[in-house]
Amino acid sequence: MSPSMSCDYWFKLGVGFARFGKSERAREMFTAGLNLAEKHRLNAWLFKLEHAISELSSRPEWEVPSHEVSELSEAPAVHTMMEGLREYAATALI
């Protein structure tokens, strides 16, 4: 991967961790991207990753966008899938 694509990868990975409440892991991902951006002098990524780290420091829990509840969310198949995902998340080692 090119350095710019790698920075994008680290950034998106960090955002994902932050949105799921894994602040320390998010900081590690942002820092890895920041180090790569510094090494390759990718200023746009440098500023973006620094901003992400400062946002992470100012609010430990990133806000997850709210969504409207539809009638499909009450379907039994959806409840079964949600329960399975919760069980998977509880056993995942992330």
Task: Give an overview in words.
- By secondary structure, the protein is mainly α.
- The chain has a domain at 3-58.
- 70% of the residues lie in helices and 0% in strands.
- α1 (3-19) packs antiparallel against α2 (23-39), α1 runs parallel beside α3 and α2 runs antiparallel to α3.
What is the rounded Rg? 17 Å
Main beta-sheet annotation: none
The number of helical runs is 4
What portion of residues belong to β-strands? under 5%
Question: Would you tell me the overall average pLDDT?
Answer: 86
Q: Residue ranges: pLDDT <50 for 5 or more in a row?
A: none
Specify the structural class.
Answer: mainly alpha
Along the chain, the helix and strand elements come as HHHH
Helix content bin: over 70%
Number of DSSP E strands: 0
In whole angstroms, the N-to-C terminal distance is 24 Å
Shape: elongated
What can be said about this structure in brief?
This protein has 94 residues and is mainly α. The protein has helices at 3-19, 23-39, 43-58, 76-91.
Tag the structure with descriptive keywords.
4 helices; mainly alpha; 94 residues
Please describe the topology of this protein.
Layout: H1 3-19, H2 23-39, H3 43-58, H4 76-91
Helix pairs in contact: 1-2, 1-3, 2-3
